[in-house]
Amino acid sequence: MSENPSLRTPSQRIAWTATIVISTLVFIFLIAPILAIMPLSFSSGSYLTYPLPGLSLRWYDDFINSPRWINSLKNSMIIGVASTLLSMVLGTLAALGLAQWKSRLKPLALAFVLSPVVVPGVITAVGLYFFFAPIGLTGSYLGLILAHTALATPFVVITVGATLQSFDTNLARAAASLGASPLQAFRRVILPLILPGLASGALFAFATSFDEVVIVLFMAGPEQRTLPREMFSGIRENISPTITAAAVVLTTVSVILLATLEGLRRRNERLKGGV
Amino acid sequence: MEAGMVNSAPALVRFSGIQKTYDGEHLVVKNLDLDIRKGEFITLLGPSGSGKTTTLMMLAGFEVPTRGEIYLAERPIKNVPPHKRDIGMVFQNYALFPHLTIAENIAFPLSVRNTSKAETQERVSAALRMIKMETLAQRRPGQLSGGQQQRVALARALVFNPQLVLMDEPLGALDKRLREQMQLEIKQLHETMGITVVYVTHDQSEALTMSDRIAVFNDGIVQQIDRPDALYEHPVNSFVAHFIGENNVLDGTVETVDKDYCRVALAGGGIVTARAVNVSGAGASTSLSVRPERIAIIPDGTSSDAPNRLPARVQNTIYLGDHALAVLDVAGNAEFMVKLQPGAHHGFTPGEGVFITFRPEDCLALDPA
C-alpha cells in the first residue's frame, strides 16, 4: 500500500493507520473461522486437531467415493438450481410490479414479500411442515424446492428492485414509442439492463438454498438429504474430517459464484460507461 | 411556409376537450382543444408545471387523459397503447439503450417491426449518413458526447418514418452553442423530410427559432396559439407578453377607451396612450407592455411633441456586444430596459435624468399581471 500523499498532519496519519488496523481486524474476524477449517481438510490424521500430523487428500478421496456425500451434493445442486430458477422468475415479476406500484399499500406489500427473510427459520420450517404434510409434499424434491423458493425469492426481489431504482424509466418509454410491445421491451431493453441485479439475486438465492439446513431437517426424506444436512448428521454421529472436505467444497462453490458475479458486474460496467 | 397553405392541410392531431388530473382534485391540463396540422412544427412552450409535458405524454400514450379524446389522423387514440401509435419520440436525457451499439439503437424500431435484414441495414446506414455519424456505428452511447447522443436519438425516432415526432426538451442538457447548432439541424430535418413535429420546451428563444406555431401554456391552459412573430407582436395577455421576449411592464388604471386605443394613468405618475388589447373598460387596472427595442431615449421631453413622453432616471447601462441596454427607473419600475444602438451606451451616466418615448401602437394595455 502506497503512502497517501494527502495525509500531511500527524492526526491524519494516526486516523489512517487506525482505519487500516481496525479494517484488518474486522476482516480477520469475518474470515478466520472459514480459513481455520480449510487446512484440516488436508490433514492425514483422523481427528480435527492442529498441528496437522501430515498432509493428504484422503478426506477428499473419502468424500468423492462415498455415495452418501456425492448424493447429498447432487441433491443440493438439484434443489438449489431449481429453487433459484423459480425464485428468479417470481422475484423479478414481484420487483417489476412493486417498482411500478404507487399505492400507499406498497410498503406493506414489500414487507409481506420480504417476510421469509425476517421470520425465524424454525417457524417457517414448522409452518411449512404442517402445510405440506397433508398435501403430500414432505419428503419430496418438489416440497423442498418450493420451500427454498419461498426463502430465496426475497433476495431476488431486493437485488432486482435495487437495480430497477436506478433504471431510467424513459428507456422503457423509448422502447414503447419505437414500437416495442411490453414483452419485446422487457426482453430487449429491461432484462439486459437488470441482468446484473438478477444475477446477484440468483447468487443469493442459490446460496440460501445451498446453505439451508433447518427446513431440510424438517421436510427431507432420506432421499433428499442435502450437503448441509449430511454435514449436520456427520457432526452428530461421527466427527470425520470428511466434513471439512465437504465444507471446503461448499465454500469453493460460493467463491466461484461470487467471482462469476463480480466478473459479470465488471463486464456490464464496461458496456455501460466510456471506453 | 405560407400561412394559407398550412391552414388548408387537414389536422393530423386533434386534442378535444382534454382534461388531466393526477390526484382527482387539481387539473394539470384544464381544457385543451388543439389542432396540429400535417407537416407542421408546433412547440408547446411554458414554464414548468404549466401542463405542456403532460400534454405531450398524453399524445405519446404514457399518460391517459382524465376527460376528452385525442385523435391521430382522425382515429381516436385514447385507448391505443404507445407502441401501436406510430409516434417517434426524443427524450431530454436521450434515452438511448446503453447495452446496444449506435447502429443497434437506430435499428431497434425496425427490428421490433420484423423489417428484413437488408432493408434494416439500408435504412440504418441512411440514418447514420443523415446525422453524419457513419464512422461511429459500432460505438456504444456511453462513448459519445451529449450532442452526438441526441443526434442518434433523433435518427432512431425518425428511421421508422412515424406519422409524428415528439420531442421533450431534447436540447435541455446541451450547452448553449451546441443547442443553437442542433436547433438549426432539427429545423433543417423538419423541412427536408416534411415530418410533423411536436416540440416541448421552456426556452422561448428556442421556440421562436424553430416553430411554425407556438402554443403558450400556463397553469394548465393554452394562453395563445400563434406564429412566433404574431406572439411577439400581438400577445393577447400579460403572461404571453412577459414570457415571449424581453418586456417592460408599467401598471396603471384605464381612464378612457376610444375604439382600439385607451388612455392609462400610470400608478407611478404620468399618462400614456396604449393599444387596448385586453382591458375591460374605463376604471379597470391594466398592465402596459412595451418592448425594449420600441423605446427611444430623448434628452429633453418638455419641448418635444413625441408621444408618450415619460421622465426617467438612468440606473446603468449593460453592454452586450451586438447591442446595449439602458436600465432606467420609469414611473416606479426600476428595471425598465431600453435597447440602445451599439456605441450609444457611452452617452449616459447613472443618476442622469432623461425622457423616454414610444408610439401608442407599440404599447399594449393588457390584463393586470
Protein described:
The complex is a heterodimer of chains A (275) and B (369). By secondary structure, chain A is mainly alpha-helical. Helix content of chain A is 76%, strand content 0%. In chain A, helix 3 (67-100) packs across helix 8 (182-211) and helix 7 (169-177) runs antiparallel to helix 8 (182-211). Chain A is globular, with a radius of gyration of 23 Å. Chain A starts with 9 loop residues before the first helix and ends with a helix. In chain A, 33% of the residues are buried. The model of chain A has no long low-confidence stretch (mean pLDDT 85). Chain B has 369 residues and is of the alpha+beta class. Chain B is elongated, with a radius of gyration of 25 Å. In chain B, helix 3 (102-111) crosses helix 4 (117-130) and helix 3 packs parallel to helix 5. The longest helix of chain B is centred in the middle third of the chain and has 18 residues, at 176-193. In chain B, the strands form 4 sheets. Chain B has a 6-stranded mixed β-sheet with strand order 6-7-8-3-9-10, with helices on both faces. Chain B has a 5-stranded mixed beta barrel with strand order 11-12-13-20-14.
Identify the strand order in the major beta sheet of chain B. 6-7-8-3-9-10
Question: Structural class, from helix and strand content of chain B?
Answer: alpha+beta
Helix content of chain A: over 70%
Which pair of protein chains has the largest interface, and what are the residue counts? A-B, 24 and 30 residues
CATH architecture annotation of the largest domain in chain B: 3-Layer(aba) Sandwich
Number of helices of chain A: 11
User: How large, in whole angstroms, is the Cα Rg of chain A?
Assistant: 23 Å
Low-confidence stretches of chain A: none
